[in-house]
Amino acid sequence: ALGPALGPALGRVPFFVLVRKLEEATNALRNERDDTLEDTERTRADLTNLDEQLSTCRAQLQSKTQTIDKLLREQRALEEELHSAIERSKREEHRCEVLQGESAHMT
After folding, report:
1. Measured between alpha carbons, how far is 85 from 54 in angstroms, rounded to an integer?
2. Which of 10, 37, 101, 105 has the smallest C-beta neighbourhood within 10 Å, fewest atoms?
3. Alpha carbon 18 to chain centroid, angstroms
4. Does the CA dihedral 21-23-29-31 come out positive or negative?
5. Looking at residue 106, what is its pLDDT?
6. Residues of the chain with pLDDT under 50
């Protein structure tokens, strides 16, 4: 009575064969699910690792940016100091020339 209700093709296949095929298909789906879960976990771990690397790189970039900013400030200060020293040197040189001129007039 079951055979005709399931259709002519299923009616000719023994029930234990159908059960075995169903179990094989179920096992294949379980294996595929397990593989997918493992892949998902690996991907999640990779993403966590990449996120940590990104955070580390951002911190390094911030530190290097601060170092560059500090070095640029120091460079500007040294340039100003050099400019002031050059100006003082020019004034001293002019003063020496004036004194030499006055000295030449005195002699």
Report:
1. 46
2. 105
3. 54
4. negative
5. 85
6. 1-3
34 in Cβ contact with 41 (< 8 Å) = no
Residue type, 52: E
Return the SS3 of 107: coil
pLDDT at position 107: 74
Return the domain boundaries, the chain: 2-106
Q: Going by C-beta distance under 8 Å and a sequence separation of 6 or more, which residues neighbour residue 2?
A: 11
pTM: 0.55
Sequence-distant (≥ 6) Cβ neighbours of residue 11 within 8 angstroms: 2, 3, 4
Please tell me the predicted confidence (pLDDT) of residue 1.
46
